[in-house]
Specification:
mainly alpha
Amino acid sequence: MALIGWAGFARVVRGMVLSIKTQEFVQAAQSIGASRLRIIIKHILPQTTSYVIVAMTLSVPSYILSESGLSFLGLGIQQPDASWGNMLKEAQEYINILYRPWLLTPGFLIFVAVLSFNLIGDTIRDVLDPKSKVR
């Protein structure tokens, strides 16, 4: 999933960089003689960092949900390898849940992992946002 998922992400970042490089503050830095490396580090990277972090932290939960869903359907990781989707497949029958309620644990762990990645991403984005007034 990550092998083909990076292309859209890279395209958006490239577009952001091309847009930022035409901004007035970058042109001002060029006019006073700042090197390309300094312009990239001081002006372009801080503008794209928040998007990169948010995109990464939102893509990890989608990969977790995709893999779990495919494994649950039998199209992902197969037995005997462990996967949350494989484990959750055992809880599909009502009778299994009655006698073995711990089979629902993978579903709870998927929820916690996805929520954690989303909250961490939002927090880091708020801290690193260059347009934020509170630091």
